[in-house]
């Protein structure tokens, strides 16, 4: 497939972008690390070499009190310019263009010195902000302009003003967070004065030949958010004020609606960009869950937007654009929207990376140079760890033979991709299958690696990436055929009754509950998904919200009663992803799943599952019990390999059998391949 609209240049008058692809803003954590800007330069260099039309950096504060965290990066003084120039020079040498995002956290600042339009605490941060005085408002406007001027001095091609996601500018615009009664609050015109004065001040400072992107919150997804008429009016005013491009912002961080997680349908919010495109003439950028060149081309070809923003897809594959341009989109390492190594790391103040690409943000540390000591390596298990190792080791020049006892590769990903909202896992399997062929890895399906094979063939080393089995419970009645493990259910080996108890409320338990309650995934039907989460395409209410339409289990065809049980008394789903756990809990609540903590399991018999919570015993009259209580390593496989006398390496679940952890598995495979 060709992508003529995606690859078409965009003329802004004073400058020309080589295609319609924006690498959206992402905070990597390198901005605050010692020597981080040198690493950041290589990170962006590779994306520029990969063909992206315009890069936007992670958010940089215009002043001290606007920082997201106490040690977050800011650009306010001339002496800070030099480190930014390291980045811009690297991008320009690679033939790319780059804008710096200017972001003031407002009440989202994770420190006691945060400022906001009004003294209204955010529900997602522990600190109550101070209300800005009129003098501080004017000073902050100057700080934005000063930061933009310094960005130009540092060599940036432009800046992006972060006016969405619930940060300071969004807080001024919205009546939800602005209850001022001075020139900066009250009527919409007064609330909108803050972003307009910022844009005017920046344009006056940097001149006419500098890109100004304004990231406009087109859909707040919170109560008392902006109305559609207000969004349109602000966009028109911004155009008059001199912005070059308007980028789409979707949802505040405090919104209880998922916006970028894997369960969000591809391109689920491009309709709102299209809605605004009828109102303004300035180029518009569509964003959120655009992760393939095909969906990007569709958005552009249909006229929904003038550019597309993709952020995490460039964590997953820096060569995204080049591969699309050369007709090799099947070789793109697709972002699966898991959040596990990017956003979850960012919010934990760790360096961001990528589950499917462990080199992301580690470009100066993880590399696969050609080996001077070629080896023949046997790999047991074609799950994520085994495939990753095989591809990376083969790329270095090793001869790799990958053994898989089953008829297909993918391992636990073949189970995960059956969960509603996790269809993207298919893309990772497709990517590795193509990479195995590209790097000439010998793949032996339906073949178990054993001692006889090792004795019959010459191998230098063995990598074990298989051997994880579900953990079983030794309790009375648990040998009954109606007590099954999660793998048997997902692989279709058993059929369950209408009443089911799930033992174990980690990621597997939550996934199984979702699987049992939603036979048809809403992630594959955008309109159905929007209705499920109460997003109104007609935009009849401020914020764009309406009443969620999830229906009852009977109405959706899933007349099943599900109990999710946890032995620990801690919060249900506490160990889930930092940025996605709330989504999983909300989905189960939508489907009426009964969740209990502090449960002791006694036995299973004809009456059902006997449990005890505290001092009270009860019986759940269920047809089946599904065990979702983690994994165990099959160490007998390891012992058999070690008996060969060859060096044996363990990666993935066989090394640490806990909750399924593809992030660790793929990274282990990469790190072993780098040093073997």
How would you describe this protein?
With 676 residues, the protein is an alpha/beta fold. It has four domains: 108 residues, no CATH class; 201 residues, TIM Barrel, CATH 3.20.20; 138 residues, Rossmann fold (3-Layer(aba) Sandwich), CATH 3.40.50.720; 120 residues, FAD/NAD(P)-binding domain. Strands 3-4-5-8-9-10-11-12 form an eight-stranded parallel β-barrel, surrounded by seven helices. It has a five-stranded parallel β-sheet with strand order 15-14-13-16-27, sandwiched between helices. Strands 18-25-19-20-21 form a five-stranded parallel β-sheet. Helix 18 packs parallel to helix 20. The two termini are 38 Å apart. About 1% of the residues have low confidence. Keywords: Flavoprotein, FMN, Iron, Iron-sulfur, Metal-binding, Oxidoreductase.
Summary, kept brief:
With 676 residues, this protein is of the alpha/beta class. An 8-stranded parallel beta barrel has the order 3-4-5-8-9-10-11-12, surrounded by 7 helices. Residues 376-658 form the FAD/NAD(P)-binding domain.
